Amino acid sequence: MSRRWIFLLAAIVATVHFSIIIVMLSPLYGAKNSYYGGSYANRLSLRQPNVNWCKELRFRIPPSNSVVALVSYPGSGNTWLRYLLQQVTGIMTGSIYMDYGLRVHGFPAENVTNGSVLVVKTHEGPPSDHKFQAAILLIRNPRDAILADFNRIHKGHIGTAPKSAFKRKTREHKSDWATYVSIELRSWESTHKHWLNNFPGPIHIVFYETLVDRTRQTLQGILDFLNHTVTEEDMNCAMYNKEGIYRRRKKYRDFDPFTPNMYAALETVRNRVRDMVTDYQRTHNRTE
Ligand SMILES: *[C@@H]1O[C@H](CO)[C@@H](O)[C@H](O)[C@H]1NC(C)=O
Ligand SMILES: *[C@@H]1O[C@H](CO)[C@@H](O)[C@H](O)[C@H]1NC(C)=O
Ligand SMILES: *[C@@H]1O[C@H](CO)[C@@H](O)[C@H](O)[C@H]1NC(C)=O
Question: Residue 47: pLDDT above 50?
């Protein structure tokens, strides 16, 4: 082969390579993430079309006296649920964070935490200043939530942590990933525990997995809790657009980063939280 052909071939390979990278720089892989800072907005705008809303987003008029928190551990579908709520109601959802990437792509009420918004996103425990009168607690199984958040931290340019990130060792020969899982699992448990045990207002519990499987019914349950009535057309439109742009696709992995010990710990903690939820529902007479 002449040098010219080799050069041409190399140019084609490079072009294809970068095209793939640009395609994969999708907000699905990081939209929830820039509340930790970073220049996410620029990357989003590379290929992000504007969101098509069922109706033009607006603030709540008149504002509600009751501010409702949308609580979850990170990586649990908070942004997707906000997206669904905005589609079905046309009312903006707020956040205790200022995520610039989200703000320019469909969530104009970032950093709004009063009755002008439908719900307010938070990953923190219940605040002591009684900012919230009610809460929606979105619970995803800890394995997927922890993995989603780990991928966010290590996302590099294509949104999935490299395999090496799971194998990196610390000096004590303990894998960073193992330490991460145990710390995050504690945090996953305590987020749910604090809200279920310490929040004085009503809590509506939503399982992420149920929201995925039975989106319409689960969303309707949330609207009932919010005392918000929508028409059937509103609901149909939201369901038609339910995939949105902020939902991560399932990532194919050819290996499972969780060890049998980790699975055992995940199961133990998950059962403890499940029991807390059951107790909460029993004592508060709710059956969702
Ligand atoms: C968020 O809102 C508060 C009060 O409304 C304001 O003081 C603050 O500057 C805002 N933060 C950002 C990052 O815009
Ligand atoms: C809620 O907060 C936003 C932004 O801080 C502000 O523009 C709006 O007027 C506030 N609404 C009410 C009802 O206080
Ligand atoms: C919904 O309405 C009921 C009955 O009026 C009220 O007790 C409850 O606080 C309202 N829920 C929210 C989230 O505002």
Answer: no
- Nearest ligand, CA of residue 100? 1
Determine contact, residues 74/32, Cβ cutoff 8 Å: yes
Cβ–ligand 3 contact at 278 (below 6 Å):
no
Other CB atoms within 10 A of residue 217 CB:
10
Contact 157, 18 (CB under 8 A): no
How far from chain centre, in Å, is Cα 83? Answer: 10
CATH top-level class for 3-283? alpha beta
Testing ligand 3's pocket by substitution, the residue of 71, 131, 132, 227 carrying the most ligand atoms inside 8 A of its CB is: 227
* Pair type for strands 203-207 and 120-122: unpaired
Between the CA of 111 and the centroid of ligand 1 the distance, in Å, is 6
One-letter identity of residue 226: L
Asked if 160 and 284 touch (Cβ cutoff 8 Å), the reply is no
Mutate to test the pocket of ligand 1, among 35, 96, 98, 102 (most ligand atoms within 8 A of CB): 98
146 SS3 class: helix
| Rg (alpha carbons) of the chain, rounded to whole number | 21
Taking the C-alpha atoms of residue 182 and residue 179, their distance in angstroms, rounded to an integer, is 5
pTM: 0.81
The pLDDT tens digits for 136-173 are: 999 999 999 999 888 877 764 446 777 777 877 655 54
